[in-house]
Every structure is written in structure tokens, then in C-alpha cells.
Amino acid sequence: MVVAYALLEADTPETDRLLEAVAGIEAVQTAHIVAGDVELIARIEAADPMAISEVVAQQIGRIDGVVNTETYISRGA
User: Fold this and answer.
1) How is the chain split into domains, by residue range?
2) Fewest CB within 10 angstroms: 27, 38, 68, 69, which?
3) The pTM is what?
4) Residue 77: its pLDDT value, please?
């Protein structure tokens, strides 16, 4: 199992809606609204790095209001 953290930049004041949409994705284990340069951070678990990439690009990146993502794959516990 691979763990990654996705930082999401959004162009919407509806961060609660984004949080609900991101948290509803099966591979997303937790998601939080944060203060700073991004609006949300999500913890993702998937079988391999390619699966992480697909979750971010095909699911998270297509949510209305998400304008940019950065993904960091964990290197260990």
C-alpha cells in the first residue's frame, strides 16, 4: 500500500463542498481544510504510485473548483 498527501488549491469559497467531495473518494482516507497556500490536504492510500496518480488526476482534479494539486508520496512510516 502506498500513502500520499495531496495539497489542493481551489478557486471557490465553497471549501466545505470541496471537502465533502474529496472525502467521498474511496482512496481518500482523510481530508482537511487548512490555512495557508492551499485550501485542502488529503491523505490517499492506493496499491501503487500509478493508482495514486489516477486518483489525483482523474477524480480529485476533476472536482469543480480544484485548480491545482501537488502530490507527495510518503517514503515510510
Assistant:
1) 2-73
2) 68
3) 0.93
4) 62
Contact at 8 Å (CB) between 22 and 8?
yes
Q: Name which of 7, 43, 1 is nearest 25 in CA terms.
A: 43
Query: In terms of DSSP H, where are the helices of 1-77?
Result: 15-23, 49-54
Three-class secondary structure of residue 24 per DSSP: coil
Instruction: Identify the CATH number of the domain defined by range 2-73.
Output: 3.30.70.920
35, 38, 41, 47: CA torsion to nearest 10: -170
Low-confidence residues in the chain, pLDDT < 70: 77
CA distance 20 to 16: 6
| Residue 51 and residue 27 in contact, taking contact as beta carbons nearer than 8 Å | yes
Write phi, then psi, for 27 (nearest 5 degrees). -75, -15
What CA–CA distance (Å, rounded) separates 58 from 35?
25
